[in-house]
Amino acid sequence: KAGVTQTPRYLIKTRGQQVTLSCSPISGHRSVSWYQQTPGQGLQFLFEYFSETQRNKGNFPGRFSGRQFSNSRSEMNVSTLELGDSALYLCASRSTEYNEQFFGPGTRLTVL
Amino acid sequence: EDKVVQSPLSLVVHEGDTVTLNCSYEVTNFRSLLWYKQEKKAPTFLFMLTSSGIEKKSGRLSSILDKKELFSILNITATQTGDSAVYLCAVGNRDDKIIFGKGTRLHILP
Known about the structure:
The complex is a heterodimer.
Chain A lengths: L4 E3 L2 E4 L5 E6 L6 E8 L3 E9 L2 E5 L6 E5 L5 E5 L8 E8 L7 E2 L3 E5 L1
Parallel strand pairs in A: 2-11
Antiparallel strand pairs in A: 1-3, 3-8, 4-5, 4-9, 5-6, 7-8, 9-10, 9-11
Chain B lengths: L2 E5 L2 E5 L4 E8 L3 E9 L5 E6 L6 E3 L2 E6 L4 E6 L8 E9 L4 E3 L3 E6 L1
Parallel strand pairs in B: 2-11
Antiparallel strand pairs in B: 1-3, 3-8, 4-5, 4-9, 6-7, 7-8, 9-10, 9-11
């Protein structure tokens, strides 16, 4: 079974721009979660999508948004980028029965 | 507010030593506790614990959960340099939320 894939792997943007990250979950997994990881804050939960609906949301500003498609692929969008948005963005998928999540390789976003 | 606290934040030991990493939690409607290992890439799954007192073991790694005292430990025996990583603890609840701790950074000296 193929693992969770994320594209792109690396991204460099400037302040004020917007960015879209993509995540394809493990086949059969309907839940996709997004996390932001920074050295100071650790892994912070952004949101979770299940069957195209946002099921849970973390404490991030409205500049961070996401969506999920009917094939369970998910995208995350960050608008009006700030320097502090530089981080590793991880996507994780899981089956509905268990809490075990499988992580993708992440997208490293650098905002200049 | 739900929280997961890991200790110590960082640890440096010599190869061959045994280490114990701690994870305590305050999470409503607890469902499971998970341990992950993160090297320079994405976290990889180690264990999922749902019942108290049942040790899960994989090679030199083992973990156990105490649901009464709300904590778990991860033990690594005969450590090797390849064990150097950040170890993450996460707790899932019955509302399908998963809360991560900040991790323990483990460094094994040769």
